[in-house]
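Note to self: keep these together.
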Amino acid sequence: MFFRIFLPLVFVALWSSAFVTAKVGVQYATPFAMLLLRFILVSLLFGGVLAATRLWRHRTSQNRSSNATALRPDTNTIALTALVGILLHGVYLGSVFFALSVGLSAGISALIVSLQPLLASALAVSLFGEKLHRFQIIGLITGIAGVALVLLPKLDGGMPPLGLASVTIGLATITGGTLLQKQIGGRIDLLHSNVVQSVAAALFFSLICLTIETPQVTWQPAFIVALAWQVLMVSAGAYLILMVLIRRDTMASVSSLLFLVPPVTAIIAAVGFDEPLTIVSLAGFAITSVGVYLVTGYRAKPV
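Structure:
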């Protein structure tokens, strides 16, 4: 019972902190330089874990005289996995970090990105001919209404248009990357997939830093802490907890935790950065979360 309550709370806190620590990091480094450092470190971390895991599997299979072999993806699967890494970690995170660097609040960034299930459901209608249940339609309308409630008062100059456009691009790419990941997820094991995606993201940000951005890093303690948090607590810690939760609980119950991320992010950012947080904003976050729940909750039910 303790872990059923404690682990989900820790996961929500860590996942929400990603937006806040990113906000800290981009005050001391250009956004793509910070992401390049992050994914170099993440690639080394996951690469070491993968090598250790393969060595352990090899020794275990020899001791047990097992004929079982690890899942070995083909070249096409590896290429598609790398594309997922570029979409999810490269373009998506790059868009969010850039939006934060030009002044978009962490809470607004988390709110817009949380619309991914709504956008995916809408695309499924046109791309795959899926039909939405009436509760899903209500959820789509509710989610849009919640976002409008938060954003409309800020459109008169209280929010950078470039940041809003950037995080919207991030929303589109995380949706596309997620749909692609669902198509290829069964063809490659999770750890191998993480290594490929992390390396692809590191190469993507290397190219960005060589061509578009002039990378700058100020090695202040706050930046080092933010970078370490992103690598260890978000990329490794939150992900590990997510995998444990998926194994222990249903996917629907795990997905429902993500509805808490925007309001928790907004509260953390209000305390840490004095980002304005009003009753209207909290109501908008809550309404959006209800809309996303209506869409994803119904899809998770067996038919």
